RNA sequence: GGCGAAGUGGCCGAGUGGUUAGGCAGAGGUCUGCAAAACCUUCUACAGCGGUUCGAGUCCGCUCUUCGCCUCCA
């Protein structure tokens, strides 16, 4: 089966072939850096992280560009809108540059903790003013844009397909219910700003042929996408709320200049709701990631996000995340069990062959099919859970695995849970965690304690063995007696 | 008002014409000195009403409800 991707433009799943294999050009709308990242950012960038990881795993060379918006994104689309970064700078009594740098750093911190791989290129809008000016210039020359009082607007009437992505093609009808204030400067109410003249006191401004001012928000993505990825890119991703107007505007600007399709596959991730209602600034129910990470391990959040499909709405609630946490612990525990399970060489019993070795290949196919079907991570996860159930079942019965089977199983989990989905703590990560917590010293002490306890149990001195177990639990270490012997793990977190 | 998505068992969440999604929680069991974990078995489903079909959670129509976008948002 080959990869199928749901294309928002055609509203169907289409077979994906890059324009210039093995290269895949991918652009994803990045954050506007005027505040800390929230759960919505996490859903979007974790989703596209899996897209990138899966494409790379499938053998493509992905060139991934994700912008940082540090200028031009206004608080509303009318002419009265303020620049978000500037507004925050005034609020925090500092420089816009400091604001954008501070929150850019914060954003990457959060994404790193979510195991989101960094884009290959992360251009910022303020660093690409000349490119944006050139684009505007070209649009004016070709009759797609006009200047009024130092402002430049894109003329939607010059691009008959305007609105094709969102289905908002009837501009007259749109105006009746529109809440955007109609301004006299625009030739048509739907026209949007490419360049705006800076008002007095405006902090971020640049010289241009039309005025001292700043670019409109929609422009940066067109300019930077075309600069780094070419005039036609394979995939453009972003949040669903950006379909209109942002992405429709991008299409209009770009295709008006090049006369070529701007994007071959549009991918839009759905939104996060909180207890059933949207997360909105006005509703004051944003779930800040840094706050959330104080309660849950970031990898739990990542797992929680990937348990639903990227095109589905994700409802955040405490109980839902707790359920995910327990589930993920089970996966991690099985992986740890697999790493430490005794192995043997030689023939393997039928059930081991049937449940693990044979099924590894079947599960491998199932999980590939799932991910090839528009990145169906919930199915992929369900396959991993079926698999670990079988591994546990065999280990319960035999207490060991044939070496080759064990390697197969480890490889399966490391590939899909680790490399592709990023929900597994790596061997190195597990070792690193142990090292941070006292490392080898603690390992040594625990070996002694478990040894003592095993002796006590052998002598049926259960009072002593239970005392060791209970007191360790009180100290945050949990003992489990399994067929392979006693094991211990830290209780807190995952 | 326009554009769009969706209503699945106690909760979360896939599926989209015929065969177990999966996770969490519940019940019974195996194992264990006990516990935990794991494993086995198991109860609650497809908003409602019509229609198409040999057969529909899955297709079509209507009704009801929810959510998103059209303002700022990933």
Q: What is the structure about, briefly put?
A:
The protein has 494 residues and is of the alpha/beta class. The chain is 48% helix and 16% strand.
Description:
This protein has helices at residues 39-57, 84-91, 96-113, 129-141, 171-177, 217-229, 243-258, 289-295, 298-306, 318-340, 350-372, 377-398, 403-420, 427-436, 439-458, 462-474, and strands at residues 4-7, 12-15, 23-28, 61-66, 145-148, 151-154, 192-197, 206-207, 212-215, 233-239, 263-269, 272-274, 277-278, 314-316, 343-344, 401-402, 477-482, 485-490. The chain folds into 3 domains: 4-269, Rossmann fold (3-Layer(aba) Sandwich); 318-425, Anticodon-binding domain of a subclass of class I aminoacyl-tRNA synthetases (Four Helix Bundle (Hemerythrin (Met), subunit A)); 442-490, no CATH class. Helix 1 (39-57) crosses helix 9, helix 11 packs antiparallel against helix 12 and helix 14 crosses helix 15. Strands 5-6-7-9-8 form a 5-stranded antiparallel beta sheet. It has a 4-stranded parallel beta sheet with strand order 4-3-10-11, with helices on both faces. Helices cover 48% and strands 16% of the residues. It has 494 residues and is of the alpha/beta class. The chain is built from 16 helices and 18 strands. The structure holds one RNA strand of 74 nucleotides.
């Amino acid at each position: 089966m080959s990869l199928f991707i749901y294309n928002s433009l055609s509203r169907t799943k289409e077979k994906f072939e890059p324009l210039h294999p093995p290269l895949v050009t991918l652009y994803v709308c990045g954050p506007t850096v005027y505040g800390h990242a929230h759960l919505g950012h996490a859903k979007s960038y974790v989703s596209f992280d899996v897209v990138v990881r899966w494409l790379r795993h499938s053998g493509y060379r992905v060139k991934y560009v994700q912008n940082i918006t540090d200028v031009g994104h206004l608080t509303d689309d009318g002419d009265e809108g303020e620049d978000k970064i500037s507004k925050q700078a005034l609020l925090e009594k500092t420089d816009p540059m400091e604001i954008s740098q501070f929150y850019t750093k914060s954003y990457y911190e959060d994404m790193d903790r979510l195991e989101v791989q960094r884009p290959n290129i992360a251009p910022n809008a303020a660093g690409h003013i000349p490119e944006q000016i050139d684009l505007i210039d070209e649009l004016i020359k070709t009759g797609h844009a006009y200047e009024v009082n130092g402002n430049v607007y894109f003329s939607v009437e010059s691009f008959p397909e305007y609105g094709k992505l969102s289905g908002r093609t009837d501009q007259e009808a749109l105006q009746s219910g529109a809440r955007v204030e109609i301004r006299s400067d625009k030739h048509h109410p739907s026209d949007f700003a490419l360049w705006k003249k800076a008002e007095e006191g405006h902090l971020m401004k640049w010289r241009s042929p039309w005025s001292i001012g700043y670019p409109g928000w929609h422009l940066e993505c067109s300019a930077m996408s075309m600069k780094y990825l070419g005039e036609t890119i394979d995939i453009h991703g972003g949040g669903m709320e950006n379909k209109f107007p942002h992405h429709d505007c991008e299409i209009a600007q770009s295709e008006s200049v090049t006369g070529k399709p701007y994007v071959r596959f549009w991918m839009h991730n759905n939104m996060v709701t909180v207890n059933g209602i949207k997360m909105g600034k006005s509703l004051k129910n944003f779930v800040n990631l840094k706050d959330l990470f104080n309660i849950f391990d970031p990898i739990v959040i990542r797992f929680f996000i990937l348990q639903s499909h990227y095109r589905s709405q994700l409802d955040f609630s405490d109980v839902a995340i707790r359920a995910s946490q327990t589930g993920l612990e089970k996966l991690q525990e099985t992986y740890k069990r697999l790493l430490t399970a005794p192995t043997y060489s030689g023939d393997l019993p039928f059930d081991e062959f049937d449940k693990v070795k044979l099924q590894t290949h079947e599960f491998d196919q199932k999980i590939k099919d799932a991910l090839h079907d528009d990145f169906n991570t919930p199915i992929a996860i369900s396959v991993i859970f079926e698999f670990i159930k079988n591994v546990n079942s065999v280990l319960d019965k035999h207490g060991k695995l044939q070496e080759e089977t064990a390697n197969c199983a480890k490889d399966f989990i490391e590939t899909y849970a680790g490399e592709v989905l990023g929900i597994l703590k790596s061997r190195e990560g597990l070792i690193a965690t142990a090292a941070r917590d006292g490392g080898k010293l603690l390992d040594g002490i625990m070996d002694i304690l478990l040894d003592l306890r095993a002796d006590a149990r052998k002598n049926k001195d259960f009072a002593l063995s239970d005392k060791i177990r209970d007191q360790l639990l009180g100290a945050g270490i949990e003992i489990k007696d399994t067929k392979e012997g006693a094991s211990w793990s830290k209780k807190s977190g995952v």
